[in-house]
Amino acid sequence: MDYGLSNILGANALTSLYRLGGASAKNSGISFMDLASATVASSAATAQNVTGVSFKEMCQARFPGAYYHVMDASNIPQSLWERNDFPFEKFFADEVDESVLNWTPAGAEPAMDSSQVQARFNSILGQTSIVVPPELEEKMKNDPSLANKVMANIDYLFAWNGYPLPGRENSALIVLDENGEVARWRLTSGGGLTGPTEEEQRQFEAEQKAKQKRREENARLAEESALKRRLQEQEAAAIALQHKIVSISGHRELSAPRLATVPTQAILAITQAQVWNSGAIL
Fold first, then answer.
1. For residue 26, with 0-12 CB atoms within 10 Å meaning exposed, 13-18 middle and 19 or more buried, which class applies?
2. Distances in Å between the alpha carbon of 100 and those of 16, 81, 117, 166?
3. Span 245-260, pLDDT tens digits
4. 41-55, 86-100, 187-201: which has the highest mean pLDDT?
5. What secondary structure does DSSP assign to the chain, as a single string?
6. pLDDT value, residue 193
7. Does a cis peptide bond (omega within 30 degrees of 0) precede residue 263?
8. From the CB of residue 202, how many other CB atoms can be counted at a distance below 10 Å?
9. CA-to-CA dists, residue 136 to 115, 139, 177, 279, angstroms
10. How far apart are CA 272 and CA 161, in angstroms?
11. CA distance 265 to 273
């Protein structure tokens, strides 16, 4: 995911990244896969020292003083998240009023360089806030290794965006989804503005769609595999039942291929008929 470091504004401007992100390595000699592999490797090495530590403890050790909230903010509409008047600063507190999840604008969007917006950006500089859905929190409790993968996702987001910017006050607001992916974020620093190009945004969205498609395909394949196993088990049971019929009745007229097409209820009826000499074989 790439926001690059282009579109630098004046020295008194503030950075505010609020889109989902990009995916190309603009102004970078590192490939997407190289950076992803390096990030995962780095996180894996770090994980050796945090075994048995909760994700909250990992975050607060990595980002001293970080706020950690268990709530689902991943469904905040993108159109609202991007607005300059979205109350993102409310996540930088010990307690978050959940009304922020249903926030709606009261009027026209203020300009980025308005004194009100700049004051709100200034109020969060130097701080970090991580928002984790309850579903993900539970998953990480049951699977501690997942916490390392989620931290790798955050590391990757930061590395790809060149965050934190050296020599500046930086702040990060990271919103995760139930799968541990970064769903929304704002990376803010004093001194410059970076943001995704339209091409980068489109590429990221295409990757997200492809990822969702892979998940759906994997789920379909898993369902087909389970169905195939059930059919194989039913066929094996039918053949075993044929052998039992033969051993009880002495008849050998039912071959395996033929029996495999006979419903289980019919086979049971045949068995009963043969045992009591009250029926005929199909």
1. middle
2. 19, 11, 17, 31
3. 777 766 555 454 554 4
4. 86-100
5. ---TT-S---TT-B----S----S-TT-SS-HHHHHHHHHHHHHHHHTT-TT--HHHHHHHHSTT-EEEES--TTS-HHHHTSTTS-GGGGSSSS--GGGGG---SSSPPPTTSHHHHHHHHHHTT-EEEEE-HHHHHHHHH-HHHHHHHHHHHHHHHHHTTPSPTTS-EEEEEEE-TTS-EEEEEEEEBT------HHHHHHHHHHHHHHHHHHHHHHHHHHHHHHHHHHHHHHHHHHHHHHHHHHHH------HHHHTTS-HHHHHHHHHHHHHT-S---
6. 44
7. no
8. 13
9. 37, 5, 7, 59
10. 73
11. 12
Residue whose structure tokens are 């003083």? 65
Residue appearing with tokens 């803010």: 188
Query: Which is nearest to 173 in space by CA: 57, 23, 53, 68?
Result: 68
Tokens of 111: 């300009």
pLDDT tens digits along 18-70: 333 333 333 334 444 444 444 545 544 444 445 578 999 999 999 999 999 99
Please choose, from the candidates 187, 211, 233, the residue with its C-alpha nearest in 3D space to the C-alpha of residue 21: 187
Single-letter amino acid code for the residue at 150: V
Tell me how far CA of residue 113 lies from CA of 16, 79, 119, in angstroms.
Answer: 11, 19, 10
